[in-house]
Design brief:
The protein has about 240 residues and is an alpha/beta fold. It is built from 10 helices and 8 strands. It has a 6-stranded parallel β-sheet with strand order 5-4-1-6-7-8, with helices on both faces.
Length: about 240
Amino acid sequence: MYKNYIFDLYGTLIDINTDEWSAKLWKSLQILYAYHGAQYTPQEIKREYGRLVDREKEAVRRRHPEYTVIDVKIEKVFKALFTQKGVRATKSRVDFIAEAFRCYSTKYIKLYDGVQDLLDTLKAHGKKIYLLSNAQRVFTENELNMFGLDRYFDGVCISSDEECSKPDAHYYQTLFDRYGLKKEESIMIGNDYISDIGGAADFGIDSLYIHQSISPEIKGELRSQYTVMDGDVYKIKKLIVKE
């Protein structure tokens, strides 16, 4: 079978539901910024957040015109929300705001049943495990630690670090170049038929698609070699791990 198992995170290993546009979130964030001396109304901070995200996206596009799918470092946005109000934005202050934002916007977060069993089995068989996630490091690093997943990975790529996201082949290539992976020895496991499965197919590696409740609706060809349509993580082991 395969030597390298590359996982998506959210919707594949971690089940999560967030709402980043609720009025309650922006009221809470407005109060938190005011605690640190940056005065906004809830409507203003929401508007400025969106504007600053768009500004960062344009900056990334100028730096990397070769990327088809980009990402930004959200910490830059949280920092700018301080500095444009004349407040010194230390790293610890910005990190605290980012963590609070994630907590306020998360409705629930948990591991899917079978995830630890799958990862333990892969390790027991001497396999290498990698993470290729469209995510923000300032959120994801804490969540990996919270669930004890960080100890499983032999390598991690997070899109906010690279300013590039799946399904862009440049992002897949970053992972393969950084850790010296071979395509014929590797498989991508994910719940998004475009970002995970389409991206893997275009890059030239095998994939397994697992359908979860938060998976995008499949409106085109599903190009995976393996499928689990009922969200049962335990079935992944049966399909792609040779006992």
